Protein 1
Amino acid sequence: MSSDAATAAGSGEDERGDGARDDRGDAAIDVRALHKSFGTNHVLRGIDFSVARGEVVCVIGPSGSGKSTLLRCINLLEEPQSGKVYVGGVEITDPDVDIDAVRRRIGMVFQSFNLFPHLTVLENLTIAQRRVLRRSKSEAEQLARANLAKVGLSEKAAAYPAQLSGGQQQRAAIARSLSMGPDVMLFDEPTSALDPELVGDVLAVMRDLAADGMTMMVVTHEMSFAREVANRVVFMDGGVVVEEGTPEQVIAAPRQERTRSFLARVLDPAAAPGPIEH
Amino acid sequence: MATNTTSTPGSSTGVPRSRLTRRQRRRLSLGVQYAAFVAVLVLLALLADWQTLRTNFARGEIAREMFPDVLTIALRNTAIYTLSGFAAGLVLGVLLALMRLSSVPPYRWLATAYVEIFRGLPALLIFIFVGVGVPLAFPGTTIPGGTVGKVALALALVSAAYMAETVRAGIQAVPRGQREAARSLGMSSSRAMVSIVIPQAFRIIVPPLTNELVLLFKDSSLVLFLGVQLEDRELTKFGRDLASTKANITPILVAGLCYLVITVPLSYLARRLETRNARASA
């Protein structure tokens, strides 16, 4: 089953050409033969995956397909059992690598925001700059305010996270990651915990980021965002990459049956044939 | 028993019991409980020898004689002993909690052994160990800080075991995503602990720590067994000494009231903080 899937995944690879895969220096993220299990649950079953500099890649798939686990392996919040992960040409799965230094270059946005509730929004944005990057208070605050302006939260600098709406919290969390000056941003279902009317503001911030040329890997259920912003869409199911390609290819004209049935359920939930989860 | 008496036609109200509404039955049950409570109070008041009680426990002139020393020396010393013991205990408690959560097995074993041993021993035994055992074990050394140092050490040894468990629970109550967010910003494990996890843990554990402080206030009375100078006496020792010179219990009563002046507001504060935390997390 997984060998079929690997062949099917070829459609996306062909497009970029085989050279791109071997040129590690050019890829912002390069994942090879990645396996990850939680106990007896084999979540990732040999993932080969890459994101080029400046590329926006959306990862879609049913829950339990391993897409969030893949994302979390890329900054080693989960440790894979085997396989290699390169970020910016550095092999982060090498036991000798300084993982804290690598993570400074990778921004991470969580589904549940994870702002620090005991700090103000401004302090949320400055604490890692000051404690990790050893920036001065004024330098850190200047950068933090610039990033808050970018996400439209200038007036919330002195507020505590609990005083913000979910959408505002998520935008503050994006600004917090940006304040570290990352080369790559990872988004783990950034709008899944939000009320529907707050999703738009967060997606708008992400769209701006993409337009600025940020390298982004986004695990999402927002098909319209994927269609509009992604350079490439990756469909995962059962711990393997089933299909990848441009949004037009994967979302509008999926080749694989599994992709088609997933998209049918997501795009028109009311007409869903059979159970939603499997 | 009384409730299962069903229709008794000749009952005073003329209404069978079973016809009582739920609310009426509840009122009746409450009324019975209040009546019993008042009856016990009246009985105790009648049986007590008020004359003897007054001369033994509430002699105004003896109580007046205790001031201001009971406040300026005794209460002050109690506060100093308790707070220094609490501070030292908290430091040791945090250390033990971090050891229990460590990925290094010997740290975990050591901390677990400490907690199990010191939680299982009476505080009095620990005071005796500190007062007698330490000078014997390390001849020629004295615990720095004199009496305050000794009491602080003993109280710290006792309270650290309890506080370690409290702090550990607080650290574990901080959501995992907080640590993940800190780590993904490039913070080291210890930096994330110090800057992100521990400050949040402390908000969670302020109420139980306040309760621990109340317990320590009372345990500070065990300084009695260390043999202290006159100027080092705290409330219990002060009250007991005076009670034996005057052959009257009044000083004990006054000392007791002094404890309550501190512990009751503290307990109240702990409850307030607890409800505030419960509201904040809801």
Note: Chain B is about 75% helix and 0% strand.
Protein 2
Amino acid sequence: MSRIRNFSVIAHIDHGKSTLADRLMETTGAVTGRDMRDQLLDSMDLERERGITIKAQSVRLAYQALDGHSYTLNLIDTPGHVDFSYEVSRSLAACEGAVLLVDAAQGAQAQTLANAYLAIEAGLEIIPVINKIDLPAADPDRVAAEIASIVGGDPDDVLRVSAKTGAGVDALLERIVAQVPPPGGDPDQPLRALVFDSYFDTYRGVVCSIRLVDGRLDTGEQLLFMATGERHPANEVGVITPRIKPVPALEAGEVGYLITGVKDIGRIRVGDTVTTTARPATTALAGYDVPKPMVFSGLFPSDGDDFERLREALEKLKLNDASLLWEPETSRALGFGFRVGFLGLLHMEIVRERLEREYDLDLVATAPSVAYRVTLTDGTVKEIRSPQDLPEATAREVLEEPYVRAMIIAPSEYVGAIMELVQTRRGEMTHMHYLSTERVELTYQLPLAEVVFDFFDTLKSRTRGYASLDYEPSDYRVSDLVKVDILLAGQPVDAFSTITHKDKAYGYGKAMVERLRELIPRQLFDVPIQAAVGARIISRETVKARRKDVLAKCYGGDISRKRKLLERQKEGKRRMKMVGSVEVPQEAFIAALRVDPTER
Amino acid sequence: MKPAPTAVALAEAAGRLAGAYVHIPFCARLCPYCDFAVVPDRLDVADRYIAAVAAEVGMEPVWRPLDTVFFGGGTPSQVSVGSLSSIVDALAGRFGLADGVEVTVEANPEDVDLSYAHRLKVAGITRVSLGAQSFDPVVLASLGRRHDRTDIIRAVEAIRAAGIGSVSLDLIFGDPTETDSSWASTLHEAVTVGADHVSTYALTVEPGTELSRLVRAGGSGPDDDVQAARWETADRTLSAAGYVRYEVSNAARPGHESRHNLSTWAQGEYLAFGMGAHGHRSGVRRRNLRRLDAYLEAVELGRRPEAASDSVGGWDAELERLMLGLRRTVGVIKGVGGAALMASADGIRLATAEIVDEVDDRLVVRDPLRTDSVIRAVLALPARS
């Protein structure tokens, strides 16, 4: 056990975490250069495309240290995005140390900090490292000072590496051995292993990532999952090197995988403690809270016949993503679908893309909404996840919305631009801290609803991409909120309803109505488009009826051609959604939902 | 308003006519909006082509005597009258010509003088359809036409003087250079010159044409609302001048309706000769090869120059009957297809909007400008056997 080091790498997107992982694997001989696929740890296509890591995975490295001893290093991967801070915490729970990796040119970013704070709270040893020192724009001295101002310590102690060239990587390995404490725990006690991740493999069933704290786990043993009470045999245990490698047993302090033959991932709870039925432990390890979805969106299949396929796809995704929650939702405009809860916007986008790409579904998603809290006149409190469910104003006593604590780090020259943006988003500054003369950390209280819609992109564009953002839920606050309904030909279209602040209702209604007027094709009738708050119409446009819908003539008696042409147009109409008597093209739903309810 | 019984009888009887369409693809040059089967500047093969068409007539199984013959193009007036005459003779020899046969030739105004018109008359041509398009020089230039308004007037007078009984003018509206007043005066001139029949076609941007390239490159194209207004102007003007609109785009003084076209809309049968020509016989719609060389080669090797054929029967034929008949002012016999339409959600919406209407056993489009809205609803009806 004294030769084991369990650690994570905490980094902002693009600060080189995956490259560093590759270099560590290569340096320790886990993979040879020839069969090294770039960025081995990221196995999902989407992760590669977005340059982020979604699922925590671990890899075991064998390292021959300068002290002459051979060490086992377990690198436990962490997601690099704010939406997945829950997964970061559970990865960190399997470690004793964390490498805080910061780009030598960009400096510390909000997410790096947020995750670093999580690691500090978890009592992990932090090893600050500056990466990309080979870049022409690298400014390691400045970045070292910044890091020291965040995690404390001496700027001179901050390691400097280039994951790309390999410079400094040997020193980092030595530092890990020297600085990360060996795992605690007692090999002679009954088995206690933390399930810190799990995923579903089509051939093997559920694969658990586990960290043994006490005792020993032998292949073939009968196991007890302490929280769920499930009993399963350890069909296979092993380590990832990064190939899957079965071993006869895992011991206290080690990290590896466990396959029990369970096919239904719902039966395995991440955060559970595994022990043996023969010699069960008396107390379980501290687990995790189930993450609470913060953002909700309706997902509807474009083709109503795909409803069941959508349900099946969601169930399959849930196999590897316990945080995904949904309930059936019916929309008059969009038919049958699901109200799906997500950890954040990125999570939402990833899930939607996976559904479309991996399950070949064509989806219409409604605008993201947060969970509002309403107290009714009779005193009952309800959570409102969809604008459709908001009770009438007369039935409401109090309407509250969720707030977040948002941390923004940016060069100080952009402070003005950021303050201006946050003000239009109803934010309140609570804290401002200069990390150095050039960079500043700003902390705000912001309504989550203002953050979920396009805030990050706007922040990026107003700061030329230099600002970074992280946020966490803080509390609920009473707000002056209204529901804006959109009516087509006099009929409200539920999928277009939005809850927004009273001061923004008019701007939103107007923008939405104008957008729809551009997107809805002319039809047989005039189509009035209205935005309304309650019974009050706040904006109106009309799509004038099509006056002419006839082709010139049956050219030279070419009846077949005209018929085919008209039939093709008929096919085009099939892709329209009938909302009452109005044909609305799918793109109207998608594009109109990009109208920002918080911007004006 | 009920369709006049005589108009209904005329329209429905046209479905029993026997027709022949002969395609003459030659043009002096390509008009920017045209996507017909045409070959500019290839008159060198005209004789070969005419011989091939005559040979193709000989390949068609014998049939009943023809009630209508239509020389379309292209520009039939690009070939000699002798050529047209030889084809009329071939048709007459193979199938016979019925009493009172209608023989139409499409012609460009600049090609028609008194001597030409006389020769047409002698060749048995009974009807000339002039590609006038407009009387406005600016519009004519924009449409790439080579004639001017005096050519049109001279051509009409020559046809009259030669004793040909029926003259039709094709007009195109909605060119971006056209104005409300220039369209009004074009209509006025068409009436004044004494056309028996006027076809008014909305300028359409067809893929692959020069016009479509211009529009894609940012040039101005026709506007739907403007064209709708121009169509209404034409409908009013012609109606006031004693013309009866018998189809979306066609109006005639009584007795001068194109029987060939009436037959098309009544789902009638017509043979097809020449490259790219379309025919309808015994429930089969067929079309000829659209490339000149391929067409000539096939015929000269003794093969029928057919590119494709579709058998249209049962429910398909019923929908087709409605699709064609609905373009007519008298509408179409409702039949099972029409009943299915009026029972469908689309049909009810169209009826509520007063776009389509049931009159006795007929289905009539009340708003001809939205005929295709009705036809699409017809074609969307679920299949049945």
Note: The longest strand of chain B covers residues 97-107.
